[in-house]
Amino acid sequence: MNNPLQLPFLNFLLKNPLFMASGTFGFGREYAGLYDIEKLGGIVSKGLTLQPRTGNTGIRVWETASGMMNSVGLENPGIEQFIQKELPYMKSLNLVHVINISGSSLNDYISACEKISLEKVDIIELNISCPNIKENNIPFGIKENTTREVVKETRKVITCPLMVKLSPDADDVVRIAQACQEEGADAVSLINTVRSLAIDVRQKRNVFENTYAGLSGPCIKPIALRMVHEVSHNISIPVMGIGGIISAHDVLEFLMAGAQAVQIGTANFINPYIGEKILKDLYNYLEMNSISNIKEIIGII
Amino acid sequence: MAIISYNKPLKNNYYLLKIAGKYQARIGQFFMLKKNCQEMFLSRPMSVYDLEDDGITFLYCVTGKGTAVLAKCRIGDEITINGPYGNGFPTDISGNLALVGGGTGIAPLFYTLKSLQDNPKINKIDVFLGLQKKNVFESDFQKLSHYLEINYGGYITDYIPYQEYNIIFSCGPEIMMRKIEENARNYNIKHYLSLEKRMACGVGACLVCSCQTKNGNARVCKDGPVFLGKDIFYE
Asked: ipTM score of the complex?
């Protein structure tokens, strides 16, 4: 049967352009109990680091107008434990699995990528929004030189497709995307959460112990859409769009802006069945508008 | 989408919210509730206060933005409810049980009390409630408990004859649960407590509700909200 949502991404033929974003879907198990997640195009693992991390202390989540802020601090079991306990499950799923890798030093990134590359995973998503301890904790992905360095060095050890996840806080997101492409990235995904601040006025102090936290949800969508548009028009490698998607309408916007696939993040918290719902609505849209394949609308804006 | 049967204001900013429909839950489990409006983006975790054939009831106190939105709900309003989530209190228990609740922490204890009423392995269920001021839900507990002790404005933990119990379920302020745990250790009582944390997903994916336990980090929504008192690191 002809599937109108089927489309290529890198060397994969996706069932549809929907991925579930890192940190919002665990390793898939939690949502697999709620609906058939193999309907999805793919899932992205929780952000993994070389060593296990217990994450940040204090408040980790804060509601904002049309969005939320988080400061989880990359709590994760570490690469080794992930490979033993979670990866076999992710690989058993009939969908494209993406492994999200973070690090606080270049060597951590390289070692983590080396280890995960041995496992023959589908795609590595490199999170370059992590603070770089060597550079005053300025995230790798803010500056062009540190972005180049981390992409170039991890590229050498990565044997699968490499997708770099861009930060909206970057000095110049287009320049950073071009740098990723030049250093050998196969795709970019954007945007990560937006650095933001909340203050507890009554107690006269910041809500989060780390002061700043990552803003996500529909409130960042127009910014994300603009960045996806700018980036996809200025690089030749594929773009995966992320940022505040909560409906099929939002997905269509990102595709029209130039994304070849998208990731759903925060919306999973609002409605745990959102993936299923958006897919149904996308099918309906294509049928109602007599579009034979969703590819037709990619990058039309 | 579900429909609100009633949202009764009680005393001291407490409300009793009933949602129509057939629901199932184990004792100590919770649901995620959300009103579709601009002011409420994330769902709020609420443990089950009561479960009847025609609906499910939640007891809450207005303490912030989310509960303020819920307080404005009227009969017939639509509300989103997902669940049940979490592990809940154990049901394979026997002997003398004490339920200890402080503030809104008493919410999961009524459904627990009601559900365990006819458990033949349980000799008696005594209830201890710590509240700031008199309210109206105390009578619900009065009807079903073998013995009920309520303390207003003080420490309910000072009024528990610990030696009488071999099992305690608690839910309330951390200082209360910590105090119970100290006594539970002295008297060799099995103590289960239910934790409350800010949540986003409710299903164990986002890790914003992590807590520290003796077995490493745990997710309050998925691995909890009920933990053994001896496994928790108190802050």
From this structure: 0.94
